[in-house]
Structure formats: structure tokens, C-alpha cells
Amino acid sequence: VHSQVCIIFSDFGKMQNVCNLLTEKLGTSVTISPPHFYHTPEAVDALRRQVCVTAVGNTRRKAQEVCRLFGQALGKPLLIREEETKEWGGHIDSHLPNSPDSLTLQERIQNATAYASCRVFAVFEIKGKENRRNKLL
Questions:
Q1: pLDDT tens per residue across span 50-80
Q2: How far are the Cα atoms of 9, 64, 79, 88 from residue 52, in angstroms, in the given order?
Q3: Cβ proximity of 78 and 125 under 8 Å
Q4: Using one digit for the tens of pLDDT, what is the confidence trace for 94-123?
Q5: What is the sign of the dihedral through the CA atoms of 135, 65, 117 and 109?
Q6: Tell me, what DSSP letter sits at residue 69?
Q7: Are 37 and 114 in contact (CB under 8 A)?
Q8: Burial class of residue 55, CB neighbours in 10 A (0-12, 13-18, 19+)
Q9: What is the number of alpha carbons within 13 Å of residue 24 lying toward its C-beta?
Q10: d(CA 13, CA 105)
Q11: Cα separations (Å) of 114 from 33, 80, 130, 137?
């Protein structure tokens, strides 16, 4: 009797645990094929959003540091614009030049890993710290 089971995992650690358990319990009677990695459109969209929000946060922190350097306080954002988003990596196994079976697991993970960067432009209001001192007196 021959049967094939296809399981979709979203957690790589759980996949490894299940594969190890199957191999341990069933021994040589089970064959585990190499994993096929892919990114759902929702996951790629979430990555884009996360990268943009992180870029805005980094921009705000840098602006706060510059304001402190000049004895000022950072106010509310007046304009935030996403200038450029780049994505790379995340290759699907079938598009790789080598046979997917000839790659090590680490190479397959590296090839399937998706990266993104975002450049933002932001304008913030700048408040003088003197106003705060006067309010305290």
C-alpha cells in the first residue's frame, strides 16, 4: 500500500518536529520529500506594511535625536510619504536554475527568504523647549 500526504506548514519549527516524529515512529517505511517554500500574497503584503511602519518609526526616532541636538522637541508629523519600496528574494523553487532536490535545506531557505526595504519622506513640526520651561515656572 502506497499513499502520499501533503501538509502545509506556516511554522518551520513545527514542520521539522513533525518530520522528525514521522521518521522516528515509521522509520524507513516513510519518505519525506524536501519542503517547497512559498509566500502567500497576504504574507508579502504584511511584510510590505511592516517594513513601511518600521521605516516611519526609524525616521521619527532620527528626527527626535536631531531635535534634541538643537534643544528642540519633535512635534506631530505634517507629512509622511512612502517614496520607494523594494522587494527581493523569495524565489519559488521551480524558478531556480538548479534542481530543488540538489540544494541543501539551508540553501532552499535562503533562496525562499523574502526581503523588503522602504524609503520614506517625513516632515515633522518642531517645538521649542523654552515653551515647556515657561509652563513649569
A1: 999 999 999 999 999 999 999 999 999 999 9
A2: 27, 18, 14, 15
A3: yes
A4: 454 555 567 888 888 888 899 999 999 999
A5: negative
A6: H
A7: no
A8: buried
A9: 6
A10: 13
A11: 23, 25, 47, 54
